[in-house]
Amino acid sequence: MLVVENLQVSYGQIKALKGISFEVPQNKIVTLIGSNGAGKSTTLRSISGLIKSQAGSIKFNGKEIRNLPAHELVKLGMNHVPEGRKIFATLTVYENLEMAAWTVKNKKLFKERVDEVFELFPRLKERRNQLGGTLSGGEQQMLAVGRAIVTGGNFILFDEPSMGLSPLLVDEIFATIIKIRERGATILLVEQNAKQALEISDYAYVLEVGTIPFHGPACDIAANPKVKEAYLGI
Amino acid sequence: MSTFFQQLLNGIQLGSIYALIALGYTMVYGIVRLINFAHGDFFMIGAYAAYGLYYALGRLFGAGNPGANYLVLFLLVLGGAMLAGGFAAVTANRVAYKPLRDKPRLSSLITAIGVSMFIEYFFSALPAIGPSFRGFPEVFPKTIIKIGTASVSNYVIIDVAVAATLMVVLTLLVKFSKVGKAMRAVSQDKEAAKLMGINIETIIGVTFLIGGAFAGVAGLLSGLTYPRIFPYMGILPGLKAFIAAVLGGIGNIPGAMLGSYIMGIAETYANAANSLIGEGIAFAILIVVLLIRPQGILGEKTADKI
User: Fold this and answer.
1) If DSSP codes are grouped into helix, strand and coil, which group holds residue A33?
2) How many CA atoms lie within 13 Å of B270's alpha carbon, on the beta-carbon side?
């Protein structure tokens, strides 16, 4: 579904991605693990069009999409749930969902998806008229995931969905990611919480200072002694 | 007592004109963090558009003769002023501000000053407009209405009513319409808005359009009330409306309205007391308020720089 080849991104003189290649097959969960500054967020941001890349190719359903504007990619079915959730703080929960439906012209479909989100996260339903900024971190993450459901893309990028959440909430968010996959979506997940990310993923790539030293099925990567030492703390 | 009331009405009238200009300043600042110094010139363009349209259409509607259809004429002139102001604002955004969007903010600020001067000198150089004053026509006959001991011209009522209507429409639009919500979303977090599939340049364009159109209307109302127009007429009202927007809390829509009425009323009373210091009052208020509340009356504290 997504094929990235030799992707290079620089911030001025600093090369953040030194030509990485990977792919995300249809209906799979693929995870990128790596430490701070390895280039995980940069990878997601260049795929979803938030930043420009200097070289390489990103093919989405066979179409070259590198450096297309972010809002165009949403129309093609790509959703990016960004790091830090980026909830609109002065918009209500419901208005946040309305914004997520910017490209959804069918009102009935919008209502169905909102109901689905409220069923998944009853807390959001209770707080539907509350401002986004007044939600707790966990509720904000639910809303961020809820927005992705409302937008309804079939390819979803998750950037650190577990960041700053209690273990219980992390489980809930990961369970939701699995649910979203079961509905037919394809997922690219970036996590520092490597252990849990590997548990729910099919395939994993390890990112180290802008390169991918190794990759493989998630269970193999989880069993890899180097990964264990560096990322799983075992 | 009667003078007091009279001056209050004049102040509200002036405040209404300031409010229509200040809203554009504040909305544009809210969405792109730009102090658009050319905004006062959209006000001037609106006034000239109204002037031109009145002389082009006035005879058609029998202006000056009994039985003339003043209402339709006024609405057409109003529409023309809105279109002209909005068009000027959208053009300035496309040509001058959009290419600088990702550049340091100071570049846009200096550019805005450049756009403002360009418009003013360009209009002065145009043979059809020229640098000199022109008398603004009475778009419909002026009548005086007595309220108690005070007398009010129907122009006061028109100014206040038009401004109030537009402000209500804008408030509803921003609060309830999808575009209005997108305007709030974009002003808060452009990146997140992009990820929702919103083309932020379209929303920024709409904001300039509304701001420019409001300034255009203010130009028409100002022409009616203070019937003298010239290419530099936008500078001082533009500056005062900007102060009103800062006073209310820049980026905040109700703040711009509140700040404008405070400015308009204070300036009118100060002018009545002593016409020499009247103009200075606006700036004195600004300094005092900002000393006490740097973020403006309704503004929120941010660490944001101009």
Assistant:
1) strand
2) 16
Domain segments of chain B: what residues? 18-234
Contacts of A69 (CB under 8 A, 6+ apart): A49, B194, B199
Determine whether the interchain pair A147/B181 forms a contact, defined as Cβ–Cβ distance below 8 Å: no
CA angle B194, B199, B204 (to 5 degrees): 105
The tens digit of pLDDT for each residue in B42-77 reads 999 999 999 999 999 888 887 777 777 888 999 999
- The model's pTM is 0.93
Distance from CA of B20 to the nearest CA of A (A): 24
Q: Which run of H or of E encompasses B114?
A: helix B105-125
Looking at the DSSP assignment, which residues form a beta bridge with residue A79? A156
Verify whether the Cβ–Cβ distance B198 to A49 is below 8 Å.
no
> Within 10 Å of residue B252's Cβ, how many Cβ atoms?
22
Distance in angstroms (rounded) separating the CA atoms of residues A111 and A104: 11
Q: What is the CATH number of the domain that holds A41?
A: 3.40.50.300
H helices within B177-302, ranges in order? 178-188, 190-195, 200-225, 235-248, 253-273, 278-292
Based on DSSP, count helices (H) and strands (E) in chain B, helices before strands.
11, 4
Q: Does A83 touch chain B (CB under 8 A)?
A: no
Contact residues, chain B, for A131 at CB < 8 Å: none
Domain extent, residue A194, equals: 2-232
| Interface contacts A/B by beta carbons within 8 Å | 62
Find chain A residues with C-beta within 8 A of B187's C-beta. Answer: none
The edge-to-edge listing of strands for the beta sheet with A14-24 is A14-24, A2-11, A55-60, A63-64
A-chain residues near B181 (CB < 8 A): 91, 95, 98-99
What is the per-residue pLDDT across B169-213, written as a single tens digit (0 to 9) for each?
999 999 999 999 999 999 999 999 999 999 999 999 999 999 999
From CA A64, how far away is CA A58, in angstroms rounded? Answer: 6
Chain A's closest residue to B192, CA to CA, is A86
Domain count along chain A: 1
For A104, which residue in chain B has the nearest alpha carbon? B197
Q: Cα separation of B135 and A79, whole Å?
A: 58
Nearest to B84 by CA among B220, B186, B199: B220
Residue A71 to residue B182, Cβ atoms within 8 A: no
Q: Does A147 touch chain B (CB under 8 A)?
A: yes
Q: Which residues does chain B have within 8 Å of residue A99's beta carbon, measured at their own beta carbons? A: 181-182, 185, 193, 196, 198
Beta bridge partners of A205: A32, A215
- Put simply, the answer to whether A89 touches B181 (Cβ < 8 Å) is no
How large is the greatest C-alpha to C-alpha distance in chain A, in angstroms?
A: 51
Residue A59's φ and ψ, nearest 5 degrees, are: -105, 125
Q: ipTM value of the model?
A: 0.93
Torsion angle of alpha carbons A223, A84, B174, A152, nearest 10°? 0
- In the DSSP assignment, the letter for residue A136 is -
